[in-house]
Amino acid sequence: MNERVALRHVSPIPLYYQLREALVEKIRREGLNVGDRIPTEAELQQIYGVSRTTVRQALADLVRDGIIRRQRGRGSVIARPPVQEMLPRLVGLTEEMRSRGRSVRSDVLECRWVEAPPRVRQALDIRPGEQVLLLVRRRYIDDDPVFYVTDYLPARLGLTPHDDFRGSLFDLMRIKGGVRVVRAEVTVEAVGAGEPEVQYLHVPPGFPLLRNVRTFFAADGSPVGYLEELCRSDRYHHFVVQKAE
């Protein structure tokens, strides 16, 4: 990728977008693989005859869309395709990623008993003053930190802070709590990264995240978990199929 390439400086299409599209086409044509490096900012300036501001804007677009990622010591490299979750399906992240040949692991950042906040009491149908197990985790896909997750679990599940929450929560709920999750209610919104996400997901302040709020239900219809999940939008997408009635 060392030849000079001319962009159209007199065009209604912004230079940064022309550069973005040129890089996408170059990646496709040369068959670059996950982890392959693309030229540095200085090299791109020289190759395409544009300013550093234009280069940085084009690269930021590619990072946001999950095409490249920044890697310390190497610069910009080709990223793995973002994970797509099919919302009509209810399956744990661990099981879903294993089926795709990808790995999942979790860091437990906090696990303790707390009094349930009002929104959690309502979702889990519990009394004021009742305690729930607060579980905060950072979850990785293929060693990339993608999720900052806060779970609230009712005491009736029988789980404790001493349990091993590094694996599948659904499996632990089934094996120890005797509960199989069969339904979830989900809301999704876009938010900007705050202090915890900047620290644990390695993103800049305000970076676009998906916020998923889920309430899980057992076969008897009782709520068995409430989750607030912040996901990197460049590494995780929702996929929804809609059909006309």
TrEMBL record:
- Please, one GO biological process term? negative regulation of DNA-templated transcription
Question: Mind telling me which SUPFAM superfamilies this protein's record contains?
Answer: Chorismate lyase-like, Winged helix' DNA-binding domain
The signal peptide annotation in the UniProt record is none
Q: Does the keyword Transcription regulation apply?
A: yes
Q: Which SMART domains does the entry mention? A: HTH_GNTR, UTRA
Indicate yes or no for the key word Transcription: yes
Q: Where is the HTH gntR-type domain?
A: 13-81
Q: PROSITE patterns this protein is in?
A: HTH_GNTR
* Protein known as: GntR family transcriptional regulator
Organism name: Limnochorda pilosa
